[in-house]
Specification:
By secondary structure, this protein is α/β, with parallel strands linked by helices. It has 2 domains: 174 residues, Alpha-Beta Complex (Spore Coat Polysaccharide Biosynthesis Protein SpsA, Chain A); 66 residues, no CATH class. It is 35% helix and 24% strand. Strands 1, 2, 3, 4, 5, 6, 7, 8 and 9 form a 9-stranded mixed sheet that branches. It has a 4-stranded antiparallel sheet with strand order 12-11-14-15, with helices on one face. It has a two-stranded antiparallel ribbon with strand order 10-13. Helix 1 runs parallel beside helix 2, helix 5 crosses helix 6 and helix 10 crosses helix 11. The chain is globular.
């Protein structure tokens, strides 16, 4: 018998996106879901909209932050599994069933950027000291950057090619199916992380029992709540520093941020459609010119375009794209698509 499940959502000024997440979640489960939403918008209209769709709506008088909101929602949950989800997620057919069937302490789905589940979103990582230093050194030395880029590309392709559940170090916080007893034993999320890194810290404390379930497919529209807030970049920087300080000490955190350089702006030719001669190539798209993180599409035709629903939802001014040889990680061509201001 499948475990009972409570869906936990935190809303911040995206009530209709949250409503769609709830609708698709109900369709993705063969068993009834309890829906618990915390509305961090501090907006009565948002809360009123959510009450049409959720079993429980918690509307605090101030923005609690993401971690504290999830901890608050947990107290209203009855399910054996806590399905912690961003509001900008759409669940695919049977996605929740597959996550519950994994019977893991924590399980995460395959995340895609588009409705057709063709553009894979990148794997997550724990941002360990070694991984952080690798990124910092790459920002300083070109040879290190090139070697790291090819290594990370191969890691992404290997992750995107998984077809069976696999034990991993980390999963995306966009959707996490967490056994309630595990969440409680770990003390929930660390509330010092108001936005970003709360799930990374939780998984690092857990250490084991984290399973990636590729048959559970979801679209993550990505950054819709944070994108509205002018404080999102500052929140990310603050949470990253606090995370590095917690796990590696303040001197390490301060030194890393002092040494690291932002990626240089890239001069790439404009393109809205890419021609792909090598049918074994992978097309990647990233908001970053160095492709430190990137979505990927396995080429299946001579031309590739960013799906319209992805471009319409994308918040950045430039989207960088490149064609990469799958076997070697060599970059065949690179382009940029720029949003024209209205």
């Amino acid at each position: 018998m499948a475990a009972s499940c409570s869906l936990l959502l935190v809303n911040y000024k995206t009530a209709m996106l949250a409503a769609e997440a709830i609708r698709t979640a109900r369709l993705a489960s063969r068993s009834p879901l309890q829906i618990v939403v915390v509305d961090n918008s501090v907006d009565s209209h948002q809360a009123d909209v959510l009450r049409r769709y959720a079993d429980v709506v918690i509307a605090p008088e101030k923005n609690l932050g993401y971690a504290a909101a999830i901890n608050r929602a947990r107290r209203s949950c009855d399910g054996e599994v806590l399905l912690v989800s961003n509001a900008d997620v759409r669940f695919g057919v049977q996605a929740i069933d597959h996550l519950l069937d994994a019977d893991a302490p924590v399980a995460g789905p395959a995340l895609y950027w588009d409705d057709a589940f063709q553009w894979h979103l990148p794997p997550s990582e724990l941002h360990t000291a070694r991984q952080t230093l690798d990124r910092v050194f790459a920002s300083r030395w070109n040879e290190w950057r090139l070697s790291r880029d090819r290594r990370r590309f191969r890691q992404r392709v290997a992750f995107w090619s998984l077809r069976k559940p696999a034990v991993v170090d980390s999963i995306s916080g966009a959707v996490m199916a967490i056994r309630a007893r595990v969440f409680d034993r770990m003390g929930g999320f660390d509330e010092r992380f108001r936005l970003y890194f709360e799930e990374t810290d939780f998984l690092r404390r857990l250490r084991t029992g984290i399973v990636y379930v590729p048959s559970a497919r979801c679209r993550h529209i990505y950054n819709q709540s944070a994108g509205i807030s002018s404080e999102a970049a500052q929140e990310y920087a603050r949470s990253e520093f606090e995370y590095l300080r917690k796990w590696n000490g303040r001197p390490f955190a301060r030194s890393v941020k002092w040494i690291e350089r932002a990626p240089d702006a890239a001069d790439m030719p404009p393109a809205t459609e890419i021609t792909v001669e090598d049918q074994t190539a992978v097309v990647e798209a990233s908001p970053l010119p160095d492709f430190d993180t990137a979505a990927g599409f396995f080429a299946s035709g001579r031309t590739v375009k960013i799906p319209p629903e992805v471009w319409d939802a994308y918040r950045g001014p430039v989207l960088y794209m490149r064609v990469v040889q799958r076997d070697t990680g060599a970059v065949i061509a690179a382009y940029a698509r720029t949003r024209i201001p209205a």
